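tool=predict chain=A
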Amino acid sequence: KVQYPEIAALVESDLANLRALFRAIDWLEGDFDLSALVDEMGRYVPRELDFLSEASHAERAARLFAGRDDIHVPRVYREFTTRRVLVMEFSDGIKITDRAALDAAGVDIDRVMRTLVEAWCEQVLVHGFFQADPHPGNLLVEPSGPRLVLLDWGLAKELPVDFRAQVLALVLALLRRDPQEMARVLASLGFGARDGSHDGLVALSSVGLEIARELATTGSLGPDRLEAIGEELLATVRANPLVRIPSHMVLLGRALGLLSGLARQLDAGVDPM
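tool=predict ok
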């Protein structure tokens, strides 16, 4: 992996343009405070350009998964790695979305998808550190095993220390069908309504309860239903504008969306949602 000389300047230019765009959106729309998101991007995107940082992330992930023989993070060759050159062990795997090649190799797709979901649950809920970019280009499958190969640790996120306890509290409130308690936990996670009221988070929690109830009944959500849910959530937020959305929740949502898209693309019997 080699970084082209002009990339850093292009990234800085793109971030500056995003800041200007988000300021305009915030002025026109007013339902979201997007400045926190672009600030987060400003902190993390440049780190993707520092391959020494990516090497450290990859080595940490390799240690975390060292006890599993179905997940592999390629070794980093530190003696050849610099800030703009990253040298790692070569993995001769099949791209996770190449269904024809996976079928030809006799790979159990459902098993691979379960392993993939477990890998991200373990990162988020056990280690509090996760790779935020699980798109198909970063995921290979070695047919022997099969073994899942996780690539590109440039965009990795450390979660707040109390995040896992807060998620547990949120899940318990969801299981108890208690939107008031869910709203309290959302506030502790960093969500906030523009008017400072509790009611907006309660409304958002009530929508979440309906989604959970539907998932429990049907076991999965199709693309059309997901689109409808997105519109329902947007309408709820418009009626109860959010001023704060935690940046790590945005990255988690992105990772979950990518994993769900993979499950649908592979037609696997596992829905990360």
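The first strand starts at residue 71 and ends at 72. Residues 113 and 270 are 7 Å apart (CA to CA).
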